[in-house]
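Whiteboard transcription, Tuesday session. T.W. wrote the structure tokens on the left side:
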């Protein structure tokens, strides 16, 4: 398998590159220094140079609040670049696996997780631009997999778990929201799932998030417990902890498809994250 990974310098992308090489695949990783994927000609040239059998498209505008302030920039990266990469891959007969998000949903579902067939209705700019990216991929390459994930964390990138551990170094207590529920996902668990999808011939949308569900507050409590952190975790609400961009109150993901790779429970991801973080320090 010859694989092209976009966003290869990012928290998820670099993991996909490493894991693919561990499988013995021939891997090319690209990121911003290699070229601007929002430029169709540049994207086509980069994909053609790589000559992949499949592309794992991790490159994205992931700053949720930043997207709210500059939706045009987020749309260029999340939609236009996705269209360009998908089209270039299609020209070579290459499959594309594109990473998307739980934020394509509005969080009003009750009683069960969101599955692939549920209607999308993003609340904010980030979700809108990622949904546009999904549609761009679908419109430009028939051999596609959209891998929706949620609350991604891992070693080697900015994420919620890093932020909370950093906060505990200087503070005796933190306040974290209890009224947003999702499916935390470890990059080290998502990466193999993306590779499995790249090697598959199943097409469509796949929900690939960590198993189970929790609030941001419960995630922090488990993180601190596992890390031996003594800082107190106070409860707050999204209304009290206002952010520029709206977030869905409920964005738990599950799959209704037999072909979907199943990820381990989010608690296992926290434990493995802490282990890798300690080894990297």
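and on the right, the sequence the group agreed on:
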């Amino acid at each position: 398998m010859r694989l092209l990974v976009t966003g290869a310098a990012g928290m998820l992308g670099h993991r996909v590159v490493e894991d693919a090489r561990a499988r013995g695949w021939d891997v090319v990783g690209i990121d911003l220094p290699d070229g601007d994927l929002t430029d169709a000609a540049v994207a086509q040239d980069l994909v053609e140079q790589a000559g992949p059998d499949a592309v794992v498209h991790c490159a994205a505008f992931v700053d949720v609040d930043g997207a709210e302030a500059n939706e045009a920039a987020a749309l260029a990266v999340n939609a236009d670049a996705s269209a360009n990469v998908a089209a270039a891959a299609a020209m070579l007969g290459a499959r594309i696996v594109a990473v998307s998000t739980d934020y394509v949903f509005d969080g009003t579902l009750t009683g069960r997780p969101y599955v692939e067939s549920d209607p999308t209705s993003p609340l904010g700019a980030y979700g809108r631009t990622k949904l546009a990216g999904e549609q761009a991929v679908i419109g430009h390459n028939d051999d596609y997999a959209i891998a929706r994930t949620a609350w991604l964390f891992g070693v080697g990138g900015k994420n919620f778990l890093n932020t909370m551990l950093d906060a505990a170094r200087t503070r005796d207590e933190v306040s974290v929201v209890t009224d947003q529920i999702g499916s935390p996902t470890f990059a080290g668990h998502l990466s193999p799932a993306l590779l499995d999808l790249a090697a598959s011939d199943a097409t469509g949308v796949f929900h690939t998030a960590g198993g189970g569900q929790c609030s941001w507050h419960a995630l922090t409590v488990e993180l601190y417990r596992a890390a031996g952190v003594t800082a107190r975790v106070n409860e707050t609400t999204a209304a009290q902890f206002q952010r520029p961009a709206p977030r869905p109150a409920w964005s738990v993901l599950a799959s209704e498809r037999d072909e979907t790779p199943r990820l381990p429970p989010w608690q296992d991801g926290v434990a493995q994250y802490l282990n890798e973080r300690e080894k990297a320090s």
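Someone added at the bottom: The mean pLDDT is 97.
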